[in-house]
Amino acid sequence: MQAPQDCKDMTQLRAAIDTLDAEIVAALARRMAYIDRAIVLKPGAGLPARIDARVEEVVAKVRGRAMAEGLDPALAESLWRRLIDWSITREEAVLGKGLLPKRRAE
């Protein structure tokens, strides 16, 4: 994919953006697969869908990464909080909202 400054016209620029959008969607789909795996693993660990400390940890990491990449950290935080809220809602649909009892090893 061409660097933005190497795009000679809007056709090239739009093609690069379309390619990048496809990569972002693919990365989000991979992230969702990890959320689905968390739905399987959390009951055994006695963990609820929402863990506020983890939410804040993820947001802090994303803000730091955004700053390092030259992306507005407020934008990154806003996007990730929406993504996290969606993920937690997906987990709660299966796990419920409370703390789950740990399963005993059999």
TrEMBL record:
The keyword Isomerase applies. One of its GO terms (biological process) is chorismate metabolic process. Keywords: Isomerase. It is an enzyme of class 5 (isomerase). It comes from the Bacteria. Substrate binds at R14, R31, K42, E91. Its EC number is 5.4.99.5. InterPro entries: Chorismate_II_sf, Chorismate_mutase-related, CM_dom_sf, CM_II_prokaryot, Isochorismate_pyruvate-lyase. PROSITE patterns: CHORISMATE_MUT_2 (PS51168). Pfam families: CM_2. Residues 4-95 form the Chorismate mutase domain. PANTHER family: CHORISMATE MUTASE. This is chorismate mutase. It comes from Fertoeibacter niger. The lineage of its organism: Bacteria, Pseudomonadati, Pseudomonadota, Alphaproteobacteria, Rhodobacterales.
